[in-house]
Predict the structure.
Amino acid sequence: MTPLDSTIKSRNQFISDSLKESSEIKLHILQQCSGEISKAIDLIIRAFNAKKKVLLCGNGGSAADAQHLATEFVIRLNPHIKRPGLPAIALTTDSSMLTASANDLGYDNVFTRSIEALGNEGDVLIGISTSGNSASVNRAFQKAHEMKLVTIGFLGKDGGESKRLVDLAIIVPSNDTQRIQEGHITVGHIIFQQVEQEMFG
């Protein structure tokens, strides 16, 4: 076997192993998180029906997930369902706000001022953290709790510190950051699409 053949064989094995592992994690989510996913659907529908909104935050890849999911609510998921936009705001998109918060208040408080300014009692905050130990996300949960928002954590590993700070924790059963992130976006799509279906389908 040439070095190139060996590289291709190793690469193909990695592709196969990664896809199988990702599939297995999703089956574990089905077994361990279905009840929490259903509760999240109920909480979000209740908020929207009460004319409340959803705020989302996270760091890094989780910030991208927050933006992705907020867009699904504002625009739509199912092109066959004609509906108005639903109020969802990713707190991760305004570079001036984020950098001012980090500079003036410290990065751990990067989301708290936005929650203070935009959040209202009965709104929903979805915080996304693969470890559950992100200080900025946990400070966001604490501020949301003070203001009587409903808090949902998209978490991983053992849920970390976030687990005790939220009203509802959805913990992807994995210790691998990539697999947790894949689980978060899958769970988010399930929740958001079912909210759309039940409200407007």
Summary: The domain at 33-200 is CATH 3.40.50.10490 (Rossmann fold).
